[in-house]
Amino acid sequence: MSVSLLAKLLFATVLPVLLLQASGSNSDQTSSIDAGAAEHQWNYVLLSSYCLLIVGASVFGGWLSRWLELTHTRMQTIISFVGGLMLGIGILHMLPHAAHDLASLKSASFWMLTGIVVMFLLIRTFHFHHHGPLEISTVVEDTPLPMLHDHDHDHDHGNCTIDHSRPLCHHAHELSWLGIAVGLSLHTLIDGIALAASVQAESLHPGRSSLFGIGTFLAIMLHKPLDAVSITSLMAAGGWSRASRNWVNGGFALMCPLGAALFLLGARSLPGLQPVVVAAALAFSAGVFICISLSDLLPEMEFHSHNRTRLTIALLAGISLAWFITWIEPSHYH
After folding, report:
1. What pTM does this model have?
2. 12 domain residue, yes or no
3. Least CB-packed of 8, 89, 190, 195 within 10 Å?
4. Does 122 fall in a domain?
5. Domain housing 306
């Protein structure tokens, strides 16, 4: 991707939040600049920074298969860590925040369940949540070379056939990169909503840190490269040019900031209901994170018995990081 194109992507990432900040300033017609206004501006700057880093991580993920041989074991180790982090963020951060702000665990649970069901239906409709060996084909001079199902151990599944009694081994011609791109883009829009809702919710109750939404940001930023490499590798396997893959990769990367901007616009249009909307969105996002993390973690546990210690340690490391982040949150959430 050219420098000028990347600059345009970064500009497009920051622009929506800057416009929202400007509109917020205009709406406060007679109010003077005070500590509250400064904090409001800090939220927009922080959210813009998060979006910028997520865009960079997503674009990098789309390029990853050019430089690194991503074996099955390496991918599953990364997925186990990120899955544990997302699971911990959903349960230890988002759900308690939502229950506190909604003043009802029942309401928070309802919105969390809604998030789980919606994400489940998206995955079932678009079949987009694949982070297996097929997506990580090695590309040499724009020519896709399918990789074996490499587990970094002494057996392989290179001659995989479709058998409903065993794990399905997907091949490039069986998966549509466009369907996966659409499904992942909708998923990433929801990630943007989760990020904006986390920043907004935590900023209402400042604690020992001003890095509002840091846990949600880390989970999204670490997960986006896995999604991006799925799209670009499938495009490479389908014979698409590097330029086409770069454009799709860049467009996909912008879905998260777009989701964040749309959420802020929607929340600002309902000033009286904004706290409730933010809390409900947070509980919904918790359900999304839980569904995504389990869709990553459960198939590996069901179908593969190798590297159990390594993958378990990675999972526990992700959960531990989520738990550690709770110590920089407002104390009343604990």
Report:
1. 0.75
2. no
3. 8
4. yes
5. 43-155+167-333
